[in-house]
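Table 4 source record.
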Amino acid sequence: MDFNMKKLASDAGIFFTRAVQFTEEKFGQAEKTELDAHFENLLARADSTKNWTERILRQTEVLLQPNPSARVEEFLYEKLDRKVPSRVTNGELLAQYMAEAASELGPTTPYGKTLIKVSEAEKRLGAAERDFIHTASLSFLTPLRNFLEGDWKTISKERRLLQNRRLDLDACKARLKKAKAAEAKATCEGDLWNDEVDKAEQELRVAQTEFDRQAEVTRLLLEGISSTHVNHLRCLHEFVKSQTTYYAQCYRHMLDLQKQLGSSQGAIFPGTFVGTSEPASPPLSSTSPTTTAATMSVAPTVPGLAPPGEAALCLEEVPPPASGTRKARVLYDYEAADSSELALLADELITVYSLPGMDPDWLIGERGNKKGKVPVTYLELLS
């Protein structure tokens, strides 16, 4: 018990001395040992790395899981060291609703068939999103989190210890300075003040040694931030790679879906909407230049063209209009679904025009001697 009381009293004395030194430094009443410029730069870079790592980590978590309640739930599961339960993605939930709607409204109807096709695509999108979240969490979030919870805590601990060693050093310097000042003023009791100066000098040497040793340990840890940057750079590349794979999968799934819907759209909507006898056209106030070009009539009549529904349109026998053709740049590759469509390559230039009664989502495209229908969404119409 006596030993513990002595240790407690000693710790209290050290804490009091540090508090006094820190307070006097804040009020400018005591000198402070300054670190060299290189050390200060290392400290600033470490602080900046920590702050930006926290921000990037939090915002990436928001990107992967926009629902704040779900993020809190996952955080609690991690703190409790329990497995996070599997959660259905929004795409998978939408796919489930569409499939149930198709089952109830009639899977053999045009609407039901389309719902089934879209639900399958949404399900694939949801699965791709799940894989992306899992991959990004392992390859990007986990290393960032490990740095903040591991390396940075070690650096912070050693920095606090260095701060205490510096306060002890400066307190010893102040004590020695006072002892020398008192020795110079004393005319008697010289031996007593000599002992005080010797004691203060000894304490200063010990404090200086401990401070130098701790400064070296902290410096080595701070220089390790460069390795942290290299590791985070590698993780960033992995994140970009997983994100690229995810969006490429989404693009392929949606492109396949668009082709499926485009091939069946002509049978469902042969130039008119179901239940109407007039060709579909959007309001004039919201008509875009692309839609205008797709829906404008370039000639009052076309020889040999039968009314919609009475005879199939033979594109090779229909000459292009004398006016109204335009150049268009292809935005994406497009594979023709049948012989009536024209396959496209990204960035190529083709001639396009519209025919009366055509679906506004399609145009007639020409490339040399080849001719066929092309989707408007794949084109950028030029002047």
